[in-house]
Amino acid sequence: MLELGQPLKEARCSADNVDLTVTVDNREPCSDQPKDHICEQSPVDGELDKGQAVSVTVSTGAPKIEMPDVTDKDEDDAGTVLK
Q1: In angstroms, what is the C-alpha Rg of the chain?
Q2: Angstrom distance (rounded) from CA 40 to CA 2
Q3: Contact predicate 33/39, CB 8 Å
Q4: pLDDT in tens, 23-60
Q5: Neighbours of 15 (CB within 10 A)
Q6: Phi, psi (deg, nearest 5) at residue 13
Q7: Could you give the count of Cα atoms lying within 13 Å of 56 in the half-sphere of its Cβ?
Q8: 8-82: CATH, from 3.20.20.60, 3.40.50.300, 3.30.43.10, 3.30.10.20
């Protein structure tokens, strides 16, 4: 099977080497994987027959978070707001 965290391009080569295909079902932010790396797969484990497909979710990078505007605050106030 493929490895979570593996780059998509590498996963496709690995799958091709054992006569499997990789199908990208979804692309979404994954906090623990960099962009274009696999963050989920189905089936998770087990054996597949030659020619079958492994479905993967590919990371678009870490999820974006909202940051408050602290440009007009002094260092102590900015630190408090950011905590």
Answers
A1: 19
A2: 10
A3: yes
A4: 999 999 998 999 999 999 999 887 889 999 999 999 99
A5: 20
A6: -65, -45
A7: 28
A8: 3.30.10.20
Q: In the predicted model, what is the mean pLDDT of residues 1-27?
A: 92
Task: Say if residue 12's pLDDT is above 90.
Answer: yes
Closest CA to 38 of 55, 21, 16: 55
Q: What is the dihedral of CA 16, 57, 34, 62, to 10 degrees?
A: 170
DSSP-derived letter for residue 49 is: -
Strand order in the sheet with 21-28: 21-28, 53-59, 38-42
DSSP 8-state assignment for residue 3: -
